[in-house]
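May I ask you to review the protein record following this short note?
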Amino acid sequence: MQEIRFHGRGGQGTVVASILLAKAFFNAGYWVQTFPVFGVERRGAPVESYLRLDKDKILIRSNVYSPNHVVVQDIKLLESVDVTAGLKPGGWVLVNALRQPQNLKIFSGFQFAYVDATGIAIRNRLGTHTHPIINTAMIGAFTRMLEMPPLDLIFDAIKEDITVKPQQNIMASKDAFERVQLLGMIN
């Protein structure tokens, strides 16, 4: 079983990202569970969402405490949230960042990747310049990072669920898939 924790802020599409990824994995033949955890439900407030996937039926019904991988949709969360809490050694951390963060030591023992999902969302006119919606870019980068699920299943999930600007969301996921920087293990 693999477990993924998403960290984001209200309005970035964090919950939708986990749902789209769950649908793509389901269509790839996995059993999936996805669910959010909210604190204060308002734009900009920290949000977590979880995804479990396995080739066998999932019987666990609890929060995700030891994820295999973490997706961070807002780099500023690194200042206030321990995004690696409980992360299994060697797991991937994917961060939305314009460039490689300076202090990679906080990711020691984990694999690290980053993508400028904000820039990709803005170029594809998803959201606004001040509140870009980055979720589809992040799942495109995630797909490349893990080499699963197939990118065409991400496109199918977007077409099925995203009614506003579906083609731009598909392009954002494809762009992030191609542009994500995979640094690998940080020592």
